[in-house]
Amino acid sequence: MRVAAPLLLCLASLANAFFPSSYLKGAPSQDLCPIPPDPYASPSQVKVKLMTALEQLTKDISELVKNDVGGTVVNVVYRDAVIWSKGFGVKNMSASGPENIVDGDSIFRIGSVTKVFTAMMMLQLRDMGSIDSLYSDVTTVLPELKIKNPFKHKRSITFDQLASHMSGLPRETPCPSIFFEGCNASFNEIYANLSRMELTYPPGTWPQYSNLGVAVLGRALEKVAGDTWEHMLERMILKPLGMSSTGIKPNVMNHLAVGYAPDGTVAKLIDIGFEAPAGQLYSTANDLSKLMMSIMNNIDPLFPSNNSLLDSETLREWMQPVYMYKDGRGFGRPWELVPITNYTLRTKGGSINGYSAEFIMAPEIKTGVVIMSSCLGCPSFRNVTERGMAMISTLSSHLFDTDLLPPVNLPLNLQEFVGSYTGKVFPGRKDVLSVAVGELHGQKVLLGHLGDFAVKLDWKPDMAKDMFQISGRGSWPLPCPFISAGMLGQYVEFLRDTSGEINGMIIEGLFPGIIFVKS
């Protein structure tokens, strides 16, 4: 068959060179050009398939934390469900009994995971029009922010830079003993101390992890909204998502997991004052799972859920990196980006006196892990985090299992669409497209053949009786990205003569005004 345009043939050759494989039965060795599919599996199906892996995860974490003080809770999230939740250890080393075992409702401090909430409120206020742009000069709403800039280029500090550690501000708020005693300095004292300090880097040039930066962001948002950070948090995120166990103080003290140092010393519950938007919050694994699900399940505009705090366009913007290192790691707003097989995890770690936490997502496949620990400095926490990240890879390997494929919706008479279709895309030549019945993962499908490629044609009877859409759902990961941008998603409409027989097709979005006649 001849390809419809030289460009497609060129792209086909390139993609075949880079991604040689065969996905189709009953057709020449061809690659199915896919668009990223939604996972086929439901939470209940995944839980069954992962039973052995989850049992092993329980054993692994039990072994890792067996010598730890305090407790650890791990939730595994998929789509709109927590498919596994397990507590290891106790809430209070001085108490006993089954009610002392930590679980998904036990309250921990989450440290810098708090930054996720502050960044989310920034995006909400931008979308409401309260902030003109993420790239606006923050001093227009927070003139109190004054710091010496020793660099040649006198760039302004923006909202976006504060959220992504690109502001150039020093790491910590200028408040003595903030790590051990908290911070009770007034905001005016903080700003006065800042005015005597210098930027670490010119704004927007290099990442410098900065608790101070996100704290300043939170205080700028207060000026924008005319409300306190705490009240905004409650009305904009916690109440809408039903996160009743999250706040700047533990709401139920008997649910609090006591924080410890590795030697068993009880950690002081400090209040970090001005820096609260960067690290003050208490929460539970189940509450953080609600936040995670609200993010992951609304990122696809075709399948929005009802608990959206941000629209899909903003969520996709939020997931983008701001700065990337050569090894694939980087920073977002305020994500810490970690590459694993096929995906980049958006993570946020947190630690504060006596506590550690990790919030880990692969939003493209709607999977994530929440980890909470009531021991700051226990060596097992890093290993538990790595095990949680590995669990996402394990889980992802089952999301596209072919036995979970939904049935393909196809017309009763597939054969009437089969054949060669000829049209004139360029003067002086005939271009031929062909349609055939093939098999993908054991299911019959309709295929459009373009050079060395076959694209899957999805039936769209809700649009028109003989309307199809060029697709490739069913093959993952992408074997041919070079061609996907120009073809996938285009609609193919088959034409009938007066007797009802198929006699042609049009692909209006790809070849406007050209009718391909069935030969």
Describe what is shown at a glance.
The protein has 519 residues and is α+β, with helices and mostly antiparallel strands.
Element layout with pairings:
Layout: H1 6-18, E1 31-32, H2 43-49, H3 51-65, E2 71-78, E3 81-89, E4 108-109, H4 114-127, H5 159-163, H6 178-181, H7 187-194, H8 211-225, H9 229-241, H10 276-279, E5 282-283, H11 285-296, H12 312-318, E6 323-324, E7 330-331, E8 336-340, E9 343-352, E10 355-362, E11 367-373, H13 380-399, E12 419-423, E13 431-440, E14 443-450, E15 453-459, E16 467-471, H14 481-487, E17 491-496, E18 502-506, E19 515-518
Parallel strand pairs: 1-15
Antiparallel strand pairs: 2-3, 2-11, 4-5, 6-7, 7-8, 8-9, 9-10, 10-11, 12-13, 12-19, 13-14, 14-15, 15-16, 16-17, 17-18, 18-19
Helix pairs in contact: 2-3, 3-13, 4-8, 4-9
Give a verbal description of the structure.
The relative contact order is 0.17. The protein has helices at 6-18, 43-49, 51-65, 114-127, 159-163, 178-181, 187-194, 211-225, 229-241, 276-279, 285-296, 312-318, 380-399, 481-487, and strands spanning 31-32, 71-78, 81-89, 108-109, 282-283, 323-324, 330-331, 336-340, 343-352, 355-362, 367-373, 419-423, 431-440, 443-450, 453-459, 467-471, 491-496, 502-506, 515-518. It folds into 2 domains: 6-37 and 405-518, no CATH class; 43-399, DD-peptidase/beta-lactamase superfamily (Beta-lactamase, 3-Layer(aba) Sandwich). Helix 2 (43-49) crosses helix 3 and helix 4 runs parallel beside helix 8 (211-225). The strands form 3 sheets. Strands 12-13-14-15-16-17-18-19 form an 8-stranded antiparallel β-barrel. Strands 3-2-11-10-9-8-7-6 form an 8-stranded antiparallel sheet, sandwiched between helices. It is built from 14 helices and 19 strands. The longest helix has 20 residues, at 380-399.
